[in-house]
Amino acid sequence: MSVREQVAGDFIADVVRADLASGRTRVQTRFPPEPNGFLHIGHAKAIITDFAIAEQFGGTCNLRFDDTNPDTEETEYVDAIVEDIRWLGFTPERVLYASDYFEQLYAWAEYLVGQGLAYVDDQDVETISAQRGGYGKPGIPSPYRDRSVPENLDLLRRMRDGEFPDGSRCLRAKIDMQAENMQLRDPVMYRIRRSHHHRTGDRWCLYPLYDWAHGQSDAIEGVTHSICTLEFVSHRPLYDWFLEHLPLPYEKPQQLEFARLELTHTVTSKRRLLALIADGVVDGWDDPRMPTLRGLRRRGYPPAAIRAFCEAIGVNKTNSRHSLEELESYVRTSLNQTAPRRMAVLRPLRLVLDNWPKDAEGKPVVEWFEIPNNPERPEEGTRRVPFTGELYIEQDDYAEVPPPKFYRLAPGREVRLRGAYLITATSRVLDTCERVAEVHATFDPATRGGDAPDGRKVRSTMHWVSAAHALKAHVALYDRLFTAEVPGERTGDPADDLNPASRELLTECFVEPALGGPTAPGETVQFERLGYFAKDDRSPMLFHRTVGLRDEWAGLQKRQA
Q1: Structure confidence by residue, pLDDT tens digits, 321-365
Q2: Residues 250, 85, 73, 264: is their CA dihedral positive or negative?
Q3: Does residue 260 carry a catalytic annotation?
């Protein structure tokens, strides 16, 4: 069973299954983003759900851009959304645009006017909003609500022809100004707006609002199940009202709502994300701390892990916030199987082997060790790693006075260097600030490969890189962008919970030579003992920490049990 089949196995699938049993002959879904920004992790769940339903029932899923607001939409976003969906692992049956249907939508608007079901209102937006009233508060009918059909048609056509200023008139559906559902209180269908559209140019000065364009676009395309998130539940009566009052030559689509994906320590509001960029908190939409698919990809998240996570949380009718640690657990599990292993030292401490041999010219001998690329996948073979008498190890791997349960290098203590030799620390050199600047040790030539012939055991294995062969690298370490699980819950402003230490950039790191060659930009590798790191796609020797090795989600589950 595929991930997509598993995701679909809940109440939405039950509805579709019942529809097919009652006579519906096919299934068609769509993912309808507005091209005014980049997709984020919440969109991933919607994408997976839309494609899952189509795949499970032998149907199709289109990508349709809801491009009805020319002020905020750009071709750049269109291209990015197409690319992100394909990166996530899906190929739309067709790529479509709501702007393709502007003529048909306008013709249907004239039809509703002709039926006495829509009218032109001369009031401004603020007045219309105030007259709609509120829950428990009656609406006030527009003074223009009872205009005659000929007058409304004349005004609507003149609106389309550009005769009136922006915002001076709008077209409203004539439904019920006392409806309990506020969406039915004569909603606006069209507004006058002279803005350049990324596809239609300046051909239109009259643009449809979402509720008018959305359901009708579904119908035009032949969508059978219009799947959306719970905030559109209140919009469904209006969705159905429009479709029921139009002469559709198509089967009427059905709207279904599911809970959106929310994560701890994360915001997905486009307005909030834009503010993070504008305020310089992050570097852009693809900053690895951002919840955008571009940011997650740059950070090294595998699309398979995102799909598996969305499958695991399922599709339900109740909003809930999922732990970011849970998503990271799926990322870690996926990378453990696929990521090549490499050695890197992030905070280097020089280690000198005093008894390391030299060649005839007095230069340190270079040895090469065959080290597995991935113990989880023996078929990926080994790589050759150089070893000399001067190495880099992590500063944290040496302690002058070791604390309890510290089993790494200390004066007189023997440890294993990964895949190489057993060594024993003998002395150290301090810098002018009395900090350890260099550690000296001896190696046991009989322990090549890391095992002692006499069977003696050591309690620690440490990674290393050869100082003579190491490549210098920058490494970005990431923490939560927001310290609070629910950003802004305490004060109402998520910015109050920003983590000032969400990124630490290390500029004096050293990595083994293999990381300068075959590792493709964007590929994620495991730095042994340190975590998973993705090579930046723009700065070749910059690595972003994807996740650490410790499964925090498993720990949370144990504590809760």
Answers
A1: 999 999 999 999 999 999 999 999 999 999 999 999 999 898 999
A2: positive
A3: yes
Out of 17, 270, 448, 529, which one is annotated catalytic? 270
Q: Both tokens of residue 2? A: 């595929």
**Is residue 270 flagged as an active site residue?**
yes
Q: For the whole model, what pTM was predicted?
A: 0.91
Q: Kindly indicate the confidence band of residue 558, based on its pLDDT and cuts at 50, 70 and 90.
A: low
Sign, CA torsion 516/518/520/525: negative
Which DSSP string corresponds to 494-521? GGGGB-TTSEEEEEEEEE-GGGGTTPPT
pLDDT tens digits, residue range 384-396? 999 999 999 999 9
Give the Cα separation of 176 and 141 in Å (integer). 9
Looking at 260, 272, 347, 418, which residue is catalytic?
A: 260
In DSSP terms, 506 is beta-bridged to: 475
Sheet strand arrangement including 348-353: 461-462, 414-417, 422-430, 436-443, 348-353, 390-394, 465-466
What pLDDT shows up at residue 538?
85
Query: Can you read off the two tokens belonging to residue 494?
Result: 């998520």
Tell me the backbone φ, ψ of residue 136, rounded to 5 degrees.
80, 0
Catalytic site residue from 5, 17, 24, 34: 34
Per the DSSP assignment, residues forming a β-bridge with 225 are: 254
- CA 557 and chain centroid, separation: 24
| Cα distance between residue 201 and residue 208, in whole Å | 15
Q: DSSP for 176-188?
A: -TT-SSGGGSS-E
Helices (H) and strands (E) in the chain, counts: 14, 27
The answer to whether the Cα torsion of 113, 116, 117, 123 is positive or negative is: positive
Can you tell me the distance from the alpha carbon of 485 to that of 168, in angstroms, rounded to the nearest whole number? 45
Catalytic status, residue 342? no
pLDDT digits (tens, 9 = 90+) for 184-227: 999 999 999 999 999 999 999 999 999 999 999 999 999 999 99
Q: Between β-strands 118-121 and 170-173, what pairing exists: parallel, antiparallel or unpaired?
A: antiparallel
Written as six digits, the tokens of 21 are: 């049993």
CA distance 174 to 151: 15
